[in-house]
Amino acid sequence: MTVLAPASTAPGVTRSRARGRRRVLWLVVLVATLLLAGVLSVTFGARDVGPADIWAGLTGSTDTASAAAVGKRVPRTILAMLVGAALAVAGAVLQGATRNPLADPQILGINGGASLAIVTGIAFFGLSSASGYIWTGMIGAGAAAVFVYAIGSLGRGGPTPLRLALAGAVTAVAFSSLISAILLPRINVMSVFRFWQVGGVGGATPDTIGQVLPFLVVGFVICLLSASALNTLALGDELAAGLGARVRTARLTASAGAVVLCGAATAVAGPIGFVGLVVPHICRLIVGVDHRWLLPVSAAGGAILLTISDVVGRVIARPEEIEVGIVTALLGAPFFIALVRRQKMRAL
């Protein structure tokens, strides 16, 4: 007589529990690493500070130069974490919504659209407020996303990964040229935003964080609520529709959340690239493709990457600093080349 094992001890259930414990463990490790990165960001820079200076700076003291430096690094660190998390989540969502392994806010021209809109607003309409930057950035990011998708959809076969990547790359180059054309004759605008174009978090203030935080929260909520729909879209449009999913609505909603995150992050930190490309692929290796886990893990990974990149940029060029956008580009470009060779432009 064959005795059936209890359902609780079935191999599938055991594997599922082990996978869940591993995911929780990775999330805990990433959160701990993020806290460590925050400590490093506050400690190291043009001037290294000790525990006493850190405590003095956190309590609002400006009696010493070190304590004052800590007071400036804390909002910088918080903004780096928020922007890194936003870009990583946006990249994961765009990759899932388009089923394109090369989807990234920078590569698809979304960051470039936000940058062009902001620079245009500054040069021609006197844009100056932080909230104005954010709204303008989101409008530009949304317009760029629609434009790239429309161009990639032309012809037979629709928006294939190759077409989207090429349309986004061409659009990003065109936007960059237009930004240069606007800035070159306007020295006053160029002098203010020459570092912003590269991408950095050095100008972070509590007021800036307060202005951008509501938009980032809205974007994060939309993306997290779209996690289950993204899992369904990964099965393919026909099968997803057969399972009752509203494919177009799910894709547009998820993409809207990513655009909000890209536009807001670009408005306060400039067009930082490759975070949204590198982090989601690394996170898939450790937690799998389930977006309910992938998105929060990507948020932690993106925050870690941008915070550490900011520290590296401050340390290796003392007493000057290298903007974080340059550091992420140096890290991300080799990864992008390796990814193209490995994926061979296949869909996810």
SSE string, helix = H, strand = E? HHHHHHHHHHHHHH
Average pLDDT, rounded to a whole number, is: 83
Q: How would you classify the helix and strand content by structural class?
A: mainly alpha
Annotated CATH homologous superfamily: ABC transporter involved in vitamin B12 uptake, BtuC
Uncertain segments of ≥5 residues (pLDDT<50)? none
Measured as a percent range, the helix fraction is: over 70%
Number of domain modules: 1
What's the tally of helices? 14
Overview of the molecule:
The chain is mainly α and 348 residues long. The protein has one domain (79-343): ABC transporter involved in vitamin B12 uptake, BtuC. 76% of the residues lie in helices and 0% in strands. It has 14 helices and no strands. The protein has helices spanning 11-43, 51-58, 65-98, 110-125, 130-152, 161-183, 187-198, 206-225, 227-233, 237-242, 247-269, 275-287, 291-315, 324-343. α1 (11-43) runs parallel beside α13 (291-315) and α9 packs across α11 (247-269). The longest helix has 34 residues, at 65-98. The chain is globular, with a radius of gyration of 21 Å. The mean pLDDT is 83.
List keywords for this structure.
single chain; 348 residues; mainly alpha; 76% helix; 0% strand
Write a short abstract of this structure.
This protein has 348 residues and is mainly alpha-helical. It has 14 helices and no strands. Helices cover 76% and strands 0% of the residues.
SSE blueprint and pairings:
Blueprint lengths: L10 H33 L7 H8 L6 H34 L11 H16 L4 H23 L8 H23 L3 H12 L7 H20 L1 H7 L3 H6 L4 H23 L5 H13 L3 H25 L8 H20 L5
Helix pairs in contact: 1-3, 1-13, 2-3, 3-8, 3-11, 3-12, 3-13, 4-5, 4-6, 4-11, 5-6, 5-11, 8-11, 9-11, 12-13, 13-14
InterPro entries: ABC_BtuC-like, ABC_transptr_permease_BtuC
GO biological process, one term: siderophore-iron import into cell
Membrane topology: Multi-pass membrane protein
